[in-house]
Design a protein that fits this description.
By secondary structure, this protein is an alpha/beta fold. It has helices at residues 2-11, 16-34, 47-57, 78-81, 100-106, 130-140, 188-191, 231-244, 249-267, 297-306, 328-344, and strands spanning 41-44, 64-69, 88-93, 112-118, 143-147, 166-170, 182-186, 273-275, 288-292, 312-314, 317-320. 37% of the residues lie in helices and 15% in strands.
């Protein structure tokens, strides 16, 4: 990325063709990551951008409903909340940590046009059964929209194995890349139901054909890329994916689950600690969330920070997020610091 900025500063767009070659490598790597076809993948600004494209562009009909779980991350709530309530019903169903798909499936009926979920919850690390949910949505004729920012790069995800319609995931979490870019996958039949809400010169693979007569948006996912893309972000994400894809996705997942399992085992031995993340491998990913009875999360967060252990405060809980490469010694150190802090807080 530094080399790109220096090149751009010194030569302007003189080496644009080389930037485009990197972009094509990124698209190929992203297809490998998702098991996707290049025609179905677009590069958008971030997860929120992709979800807004769906909410604003779908061919809604009066009386349609969108189904979401309570407590979703705002990116997967606000786009649907902007829809006119007199036109589209918003169904917020309680989130059941023991059966998160059950309430969503129970809310399906002939009016349910969309189910929008995070595949991994940001506030607990609970991972949804996308196969079960996708099968129910497909049987009901409901579109399944997945916010996968806490999933991509952490857990294996193959679109050919899911009955999903849209998957969006930003680059700056588990994909280990900078901010300002996201992968946007759409099933062709679902994509046909989206009207592009933006248009521009870069939507076509032959984008330098400025004299074209047919300006209709293309049928592939490039229709969601109206203008100049974030080239620095593309270069960063291409490098990150090249690194991630050196390891098999299933092996990365196994190593990550082993690390979150190690944290869960250690947390289970500490007094007053309540863990919100499931022990079952099938129900978790890279996030471990917990709270301590009678102790504000800010106090624990401060103690961890002072010891060089970084966490995130999410509501009443603290979130630890190792990746598949995090050394075991760092995990054990985090548990030791937490145990010491609990004796004084």
């Amino acid at each position: 990325m530094r080399a790109f900025v220096e090149d751009n500063a010194a030569y302007g767009p003189l080496h644009y063709s080389a930037w485009l070659e990197t972009e094509q490598r990124l698209r190929q790597s992203a297809c490998r990551l998702l098991g996707a076809n290049a025609d179905d993948l677009a590069l958008v600004k971030n997860t929120s951008d992709g979800l807004c494209l769906i909410a604003a562009g779908l061919d809604w009909r009066p009386g349609d409903a969108v189904v979401c779980s309570e407590g979703e991350f705002p990116s997967n709530l606000m786009p649907w909340q902007q829809l006119p309530p007199e036109f589209v019903e918003r169904r917020m169903v309680p989130f059941d940590p023991h059966d998160p798909e059950g309430a969503l499936i129970a809310a399906l009926d002939s009016k349910a046009r969309v189910v929008a979920v995070s595949s991994v919850r940001y506030d607990s690390g609970i991972r949804l059964d996308l196969q079960r949910l996708g099968a129910a949505c497909r049987a009901n004729g409901t579109l399944l929209v997945i916010d996968a920012i806490q999933h991509l790069g952490a857990m294996a995800l193959d679109v050919s194995e899911l009955q999903a319609d849209f998957i969006v995931g930003g680059s700056h979490k588990w994909l280990l890349a900078p901010e300002g870019l996201a992968l946007f996958w759409s099933r062709p039949e679902a994509r046909d139901r989206l009207k592009p809400i933006q248009t521009g010169w870069r939507m076509w693979p032959d984008m330098f054909n400025f004299e074209r007569r047919n300006w209709r948006p293309p049928s592939n996912a490039r229709r969601f890329e109206p203008g100049t893309l974030n080239t620095a972000g593309i270069i960063g994400l291409e490098a990150a994916l090249e690194l991630l894809l050196r390891d098999d996705a299933v092996e990365r997942e196994r190593r990550l689950l082993e690390r979150t399992g190690r944290l869960l085992d250690g947390l289970s031995t500490l007094p007053k600690v309540h863990v919100h993340t499931p022990v079952d491998d099938a129900r978790r990913a890279g996030i471990v969330c917990f709270r301590v009875d009678g102790v504000a999360p800010q106090a624990i967060h401060k103690a961890l920070i002072e010891a060089g252990i970084y966490s995130a405060i999410r509501g009443p809980s603290l979130r630890l997020s190792p990746h598949f490469y995090t050394p075991h010694a760092q995990l054990d150190r985090a548990l030791e610091v937490l145990a010491d802090a609990l004796q004084t807080l």
